[in-house]
User: Fold these one by one.
Assistant:
Number 1:
Amino acid sequence: MSMNTGHLIFPQDPVAQHAVTICATLQAKGHRALLAGGCVRDLMLGRTPADYDIATDALPEETMALFPHTRPVGIKFGVVLVIVKGTPYEVACFRKDGPYLDGRRPETVSFSDEKEDARRRDFTINALFYDPARQTVLDYVNGIADLHAGILRAVGDPQKRFQEDRLRMLRALRFSVRFSYAIEDRTWRALCREREAITQVSTERIRDELIRLLTEGKADRALQLLDESGFLKILLPEVAAMKGVEQPPEFHPEGDVFTHTRLALAHLPAQRSEALTLALLLHDTGKVKTQRFDAGRIRFFGHDHESSVIARRICERFLIPVKTTERIVWLVKQHMRIHRFQNMRLSKQKQLLREPGFHELLVLARCDALGSNGDMNAVDYAEKMRNALGDEDLSPTPLLTGNDLIALGYKPDRRFRRMLEAVERGQLDGTLADRAEAIALVERIFGPPGT
């Protein structure tokens, strides 16, 4: 196998330089030591690597003897963590993998050289090495050419690569989206051919890869690739079911519910939470069940509630943490309230504005509108109102408390909550100015003390 070489500008920050120092320490003892994989790819693309991995011909015990702070995390696979000033660096032996029987890990490995190590990796752009001593990129799989051409290509036989680790199929989609790369034809065909085997992967691994796929790059492109590859029907059938569900053209000139969702996802900001992303993806899933044809008009009564039920079911299926699940479900259930905002009572408006998730709800509503008829009136109105009001406007100091009600002669019971809520509504609506008016309101609605 021929070797191509290339050059890159190596960063001078401490995290990067510590990786170079680890390589130098290994090399000083006569070992081959290279930076490997994604960090080399990112550096060649002018990106800051999330971490730095090192590949070496040193055995784990040799590596551990050279550094004061290490942790064996995969001795069977030749992997040791070297910890420098709190930052872990994965140092792995060059290796050749044996057969994969579980669709995730090789049953055996044999330590080898960098050429064999490159051949076992997933994609050519992830199989590059960098020799910091010679300041040279080493390429045994034509990864440099694919980087420059914007192509994602499996190393060697793509079907074999995907059979070795089933999750690589979703990783292919993720890298394609993240880097805006085209998936090479043989790699794409193998991915589509093997897609049903994705169900052999654990729920947690699929969940994490899906979230990264949807949040690391353009979410609309991610949805498109999931659909075109057939993974959407397998993993998110509720989303796939939105295809072909008609919408009223006067409100949704863009087309069916699936098209609307894809267009809405295109307007997500680059920095976004998984909760916001998943909520926007799922916000109209309930339209499939609630679609009605009424006197020639298409209606979706209660689709926001139905969508929230579906969203919760999906979150539970993918074992999404409770806190994130609750935010997703809340965003989906509330998403129509921004569009109705101008017709809401003032107290209801203020209660919504002070919700912890309001900012994300506003972003969701903006994306929702931009993915349909582009009407921003309600979104802009709500945003302007939120910016104009301070904390005291949204959460005023209570004119009455539970202790005040007791002092007035009311006996504590279930009415207390409704009494205090009525007073707060009056404050938010601007109809109560002082304590006396609050007491009068309580007596008018609930009767005087003792009744």
Number 2:
Amino acid sequence: MPLFAILNQFQILKRDLRFAKELVSGVTRWRRRLDYVISELAGRTTESLEPEMRQVLRLGLYELTQMGAPSHALNEHVELAKAWVRPAAAGFANGVLREAARRAEAGKLPDPAAMAGGSSVRDRARRLGVVHSHPTWLVARWLRALGEESTLSLLVCNNARPSYSLRANGAALAAADEEDGAADEQGAATPAARLLRRLRALEGVEATPSPLLPSDFVRVASGLQSVLRSGLVARGLCAVQDESTGLAVQLLDPRPGERLLDACAAPGNKTLLAAGRMLGQGRVVALDVSAGRLQALRNAAEAQGLGAIVTTRAADLRQEAAAARAAADGGAAAASFDRVLLDAPCSGTGVLAKRADLRWRRTADQITQLSTLQDDLLNAASAFVKPGGLLVYSTCSIEVDECSDRVRAFLGRPEGGEFDLEAPPPGLMPEGVVGPDGCVATLPHQHGVDGAFAARLRRRGAAGA
């Protein structure tokens, strides 16, 4: 169970809960920089310290340097070292943290920007990685792909407080407006406009229509916790969802009456947005290997009034494709869907502002392994696209290995031989998100949303929409 869910089970003051969340999130985000300072003060690497001692010192240093805690507050961390590590460890923790407090007061804390090193990509990546608390291998990739200026902007963006958006559920909002007697007042309002009317009635909430997808998404500048407490999300009227996910569905452009397959559907944000676009007409099949996550998707579909057209199936896409190719009625029938969405498992390097832990959990080897999986899933998804139909491949990665490279590789294999990379029709996508190759790509520091990628692949055959 996630730590914050556990904390919520206890009778903890909201103020204390917010403080605990800030500590955990902040220490996770700034871990590498904190470790550099601790190593300089302690005269030894943090890897040589006991894990519990590392955490105590990280917490104390973060509270001192990032949260402005007075030096006497460090007594709590010394006591924590005594209880969590061992009684004799209190002296070491006290020495390191008191030295940090003295240097911080004098403006002389160790500064990783002054680290010695050469001018190679590896050396620059190491310095930037310590200063901005990212792994060296990842910074080096970005330096090569984006250049130094853009990489620096991305690092700063990843460490800033993340922003959040809400996806408005048009069907549920229209039904709620009808119940409230506001249907005539709302008229032909967009889902986002209906949601904004309700948000403006909540104290402390500042929200505006998304500049990218203004009909379906709302950006929340402040007051997200008030929105969650209001019940709007629990009632299915909206969902916390980044606008970048909506761009993949916008590129898919589902139409009423069509058959749509979401091939790696959980947790279902894209599934439900696509289903909402179909206005209750047609069929959406949500496929995923996780039965538990599909049940959550099913519950959300029911809450949002979309249960009639959304069906779920717990299965491996690759096995389903093999069955479908072997027999016309095996699994979900081959080549029977108008539109197929493959939101593939990926490294998630586009969402590091919201998921700071991912930067420490990913490795370069994992990206290679994920690329192989993505190839297999693209091959499998292609089996379900009927002639003239669309396959949209998307990720929440900003690594070219997982994005445009996978599309090019697919088009060069037999499974992609009947497909063409297709630019979106004029007016479908917002300005600034479509590259010269016709693919959709966002970067957090350029577009103000999570980093993401999507490509539109048309299967040759009957004319498609």
Number 3:
Amino acid sequence: MIVKSPSNTARDGQHRVLEMIARGAALQDILDSLMRLIEAQSEDVLCSLMLLDDDGRTVHPGAGPSLPPAFLAALDGLTIGPCAGSCGTAIHRGETVIVTDILSDPLWADYHALAVPHGLRACWSTPIYGDGQRILGSFAMYYRAPKAPGEDDLCLPGIATHLAAIAIERARRESELALHRDHLQALVEARTAALSQAQEELVRRDRLAALGALVAGVAHELNTPIGNSLIAATCLADKTRALAGSVEGGLRRSQLARFFAQADEAGQILARNLQRAARLVASFKQVAVDPGNSERRAFMLCELLAELLPPLRVLARQRGVVIETDIAPGLAMDSYPGPLAEALTHLVDNCLVHAFADTADGAIVIRAAPAIDASVRISVSDNGAGIAPPLAPRVYDPFVTTRPGAGGSGLGLHVVHNIVSGVLGGRIELDSALGKGSTFRLTLPAIAGA
């Protein structure tokens, strides 16, 4: 509510000050405007506003646009008390203090030397109360001659202190909110940094765990062919030494024939197991797909599939499986055709080895169509055995296979996942039902990221 003022001009001025407060104007500008408003209501008055410091004992100038700057500077840091001029005493007492003659009033005994050189002889000061009757500062009216307040003068401090309290409280609340925002921002940044560090640590642990699992899998997979090769080589060496000993005592034809047969068998075992080890090593190399070693270029997806499918169809026919396609025309991509072809080959091989292991016929359907956000959706579906639900979440893990010992390394889908997510910048999803087949869906950007 606006305090009653002696004129319409004062009321208009109050509204202007309130508008400044509502707009969030700077406190200094609001207080300066308020001082000028009061000065315009009385002749020869010079107004000031002192703000109580956080220590509750000292004050500093908040506004005084018409007072000499040197005088205001001298009041900065003034300690309130029972005889601390008009302003310091008003704040100390919590009531209005009227000093009609600065030169003779005992309240100014220690301070009149600050005011009189600037021609200031009278000072009336009123404390400014905020919420909860907390004193925020004081409002003062100075005159250049000794003067006692008249009836019209007594309403002006009420106007000034009322509007000043609103402005000061609002500014302090905004300052407190800003401090809270800064504190919350600092907390958020600290928590974010902690979460990021924790996430990096989890990723590092996951990578180390994955590396450990991969190394263990490599050792396990290579152990069998290497062990078989070692046994065959050791056996062949023993047979060779025995044959050498028989030569000195006379070698029969039957012994030589038996040695040749055993040597041939050992050689076949060595060849099979070393070839198996070589295939495993080749599979392991594919796990770490490096896009830097892949050629990026623009290509038509239908042309890539036209080159890729003929040899796959030959393998499929040998197993009684038909490969069908449904490719939308005009699908252009700027990506890595080599890794994409490798991923599709692994998916088709996965169907042939696992989906149709126990059936003489079946179908694989490869579809491709444009998707939203300038991406391409490619799917490889089969109507084979499907994947058991407990196994589905682990199909991309290394060495996970439904047919251990059947010739696969269990790395095919792991390689596919690495290619799709790492090189091609897309994602892969699985939809499978046991006994009803599986569908792998690849969502790839038509233009690969840099």
Number 4:
Amino acid sequence: MYHNWIPNSDPEIKASMLKSIGKNIDDLFADIPEPIRLKKNLNVGFGKPLSEYEVLRLVDRILSKNKVFRDPPPFIGGGICASHTPSIVRLLSLRGEVYTAYTPYQPEINQGILQALFEYQSMMAELYGVDVVNASMYDGSTAVAEAFRLAMRVTGRRKILVPETMNPFHRSVANTWISPVGGVIVEYRVDGRGQPLIQDLTSKVDGETAAVYLENPSFLGNLVEEPEEIESIARSKGSLFVVFSDPVSLGVIKPPGNYGADIVVGDGQGLGLGLNYGGPGLGILGIRMDQGLLKQLPGRLVGATLDSNGNRGYALILQTREQHIRREKATSNITTNSSLMAIMGAIYISYLGWNGLRRLGESILKRTRYVVENIRKRLSGRVSIAIDTDLFFKEVPLRFHRRSYEEIHRDLLARGIHGGLWLKDLLKGYEDCSLFCFSEVHSKSDIDLLINALDEVS
């Protein structure tokens, strides 16, 4: 079909091109076996080119079939939760010099982007309590995978110890990244309160362990009460201590660098990035100051310096780690990264400030506390908290005792409520559980609406 937007679709142009190469159209498809060649025209499209207005009407008709959950916002958890994006974050990030920026290799023409990324690094390093944070990784899962690969390179070991309740999405990505280079993921057990079983962990840490990995808050939302003990166990065998933390939680809990983390990771999706159908996220990866770790750290690093006139300037540093210089020997192969997401995260934190981030964290703690108390009070015998603790941040796993969560989720949807993430095929021992998220966008009335609905359908 000819259309002036489709290159070389004019029959005269096609004929001229075929004549120039001395072929017919069948010759160009000779590598396709005859039995599977299509012998008729495809019944696609609308029989004619559509105008811009007709395309917009068609797309709107298709999009109208989607159900958008705004009142109340979705309660689905699992590491990516509904959150608020302040208008200023979207406004500033959509500026052309930010929105379309590529890797700033030429510092003389990229001072604005470089400074923004430098500020992002500085804020994240302070937030996580470490010395160096890169700018940046694709999302939380790839940050975890890179952290594991980093630990393996630095220690020369292959075993990574992770909690049995590790985020299954992160674990899947990490396993994909480390298994080709001989990496092995081994679980350590977690008790009914969501705390690592020290005896089990101690028995599994040995001279082959590259890193001990901890999530705090965990995938299931509970806080780890004595992370320093995990650090001590890792250190006793020369292993690195890797900690994943939600950056929003660090407004109210101790930064992982402050209890000995060698490598910190996180996902900045909650820093005003929105859901976006599951991505993009913002992978946070940082380290304590150590030359061995620094030389093996992947991702872009921006440094501050002085120009020939003594004025402060910014440039990419330690580029000898990267693939455009080291090629196949590079330790950093991030190429075009999620720097737009990093800048959005920096704008968000700058807008809230440290006091605002603390108040945000406190408001989420209060919400999760309210949920836990009311579930136990009103739904006893039918719905329970899957972990025996009161210390949750943002996510709460609910166990359903009388009905399948698949049925309950369907009933919630019928009431205009998007429930939690069913853990049936994701986490062993939690097949009858669903992971619910409660963030700053969920009001008290939203939470009451959910609990009332669960009271009816559970």
